[in-house]
Specification:
33% strand; alpha+beta; 6-stranded antiparallel beta barrel; 12 helices; 6-stranded antiparallel barrel
């Protein structure tokens, strides 16, 4: 019996030590944001840091009058009513003016500077006539758009405020799969909502945006979370929540965020240049193991000398890759000493660079490794800063065409040139009275459409506006307007 008492006493001592250690761990977790390996993580510190800096964004697009094409009533034409009512009995389509409904939506954003700069998604603010930002303490501000980048689905907006709460920006490169994270936002207009999960994967590509290397998380992300914060246990911003993957439209375990490595570059460029400076390697390709699998599926033998990397399917003439000696069929294995196995990883690295930056690239050619330092270029094939130009470069004044002009000339859209000064229009031979209907194969319905066409062309490789239109006499006109060196 004495022996059993000794065993019991020893067990109680061990149990007491265990509870003491647990209490000590809890105290440490509460006083420090650092997680203890192998122990439950206290996320209250991160939530307290993040909540004040994550805002609710209300989007309003006002009602507008638009002219649309509608299908003619086939029965009215069959019975001759088209002639009776003055529609000419031609069938086809008719022009009608419609009043678009007022649209309202909401999303989230993250304050990154005390003077009011806020990062969100492009799709949260695109097309907005009014943006209202509400802070966690219920203060409201009107916001203006500083810049947007549809390719990465990021936008930078600004409110006039001082000493606003901010969220420190962490390094998403240091994230590890399995690490705990918080998603903070305003799903379904439920303000200041926090959900927890882990990093499920990194550098995930979904084919949704032009450049993507998403952080995948199982922290619940729903409608309204877009533009909100993905936060690590230290209370640092490591991603901007962008989308969920679901067959039902509701959360099903897959959420995706844009990493801060991409966000930082986009924000800096929008602030400094007004547009994103994209560094191009000048290749097209896919993951090497995917290429190998496709060849095997066709009963083809393939030996690239390596199984992981980026298979180069095409090399753009005059690009950085071509100048370095990279050829079709080569496999890129690392950038600046960092191993790359997926195209999304390569995109993330390149998107942190600007034209003119140098990178050290390693690739496999004929089963042999080659390493060179190369200079990256922009889409126009040089290292110059790409500036977004506005319509001032055209040297003209414009107005939307009238319904009378549409009927008389048999057109459905366009803007009229009402004045020409010195500028690219005059140089191209376009004068007063010309109606611009299409630019670079995009229909021009408004002055805003023309502005957008100029912005897109100014940052493209060609830097040219290919304009189609019509003169008041009914004669069609075609012009190429050069925007380079203006």
């Amino acid at each position: 019996m004495k022996k059993y008492k000794n065993y019991l006493f020893a067990a109680m001592c061990i149990l007491a030590v265990s509870f003491s250690a647990g209490a000590l761990m809890k105290v440490k977790a509460a006083s420090s944001p650092a997680a203890i390996a192998g122990q439950p993580v206290d996320l209250t510190y991160a939530a307290e840091k993040a909540l004040p800096a994550v805002v609710h964004i209300k989007y309003v697009q006002n009602s507008k009058v638009q002219t649309v094409d509608v299908q003619s009533d086939p029965f009215s034409d069959f019975f001759g009513f088209g002639d009776f009512f003055g529609r000419g009995g031609q069938g086809g389509t008719q022009k009608r003016q419609v009043q678009t409904p007022k649209k309202e939506a909401s999303g989230s954003g993250v304050i990154i500077s005390a003077d009011g700069y806020i990062v969100t998604n492009n799709h949260v603010v695109e097309g907005a006539d009014e943006l209202t930002v509400t802070l966690n303490d219920n203060r409201e501000f009107s916001a203006r758009i500083i810049g947007t980048d549809k390719t990465t689905d990021l936008a930078l907006i600004k409110v006039d405020g001082k000493n606003l709460p901010t969220l420190p920006i962490g390094d998403s490169d240091k994230l590890k799969v399995g690490e705990w994270v918080l998603a903070v936002g305003n799903p379904f207009n439920l303000n200041s909502t926090v959900t927890a999960g882990i990093v499920s994967a990194k550098a995930r590509s979904l084919g949704a945006n032009g450049v993507e290397s998403f952080i995948q998380t199982d922290a619940a992300i729903n409608a309204g979370n877009s533009g909100g914060a993905l936060v690590n246990t230290q209370g640092e911003l490591i991603g901007i929540n962008a989308m969920l993957y679901s067959q039902t439209g509701s959360y099903s375990g897959y959420g995706f965020a844009i990493p801060t490595t991409i966000m930082n570059k986009v924000v800096d460029d929008l602030k400094t240049y007004g547009t994103v400076q994209r560094a191009m390697l000048g290749i097209a390709g896919n993951n090497a193991h995917d290429y190998i699998d496709m060849q095997k599926a066709q009963d083809k033998e393939v030996d690239l000398g390596v199984n992981d990397g980026i298979y180069v399917a095409k090399v753009e003439e005059g690009g950085s890759a071509a100048e370095s000696g990279i050829q079709e069929g080569d496999v890129i294995t690392s950038i600046d000493g960092k191993k790359v196995t997926k195209m999304s990883e390569l995109q993330e690295i390149l998107y942190s660079k600007r034209p003119g930056d140098k990178i050290t690239i390693t690739w496999i050619h004929n089963k042999k490794s080659v390493t060179k330092t190369i200079t990256l270029k922009n889409a126009q094939g040089n290292t110059n800063v790409v500036k977004t130009r506005d319509m001032d470069i055209l040297g003209g004044q414009f107005r939307p065409i009238t319904e009378s002009q549409k009927q008389n000339l048999g057109i459905s859209n366009g803007v009229e040139v009402i004045k020409v000064n010195n500028g690219t229009l005059k140089e191209a031979g376009i004068s007063k009275g010309f109606i611009i209907c299409d630019v670079n194969d995009a229909k021009i319905n408004s002055i805003e459409d023309l502005q957008k066409a100029v912005e897109n062309a100014s940052s493209s490789k060609d830097e040219t506006l290919y304009i189609k239109g019509i003169w008041p006499t009914g004669k069609k006109g075609y012009f190429a307007v050069d925007l380079t060196n203006k």
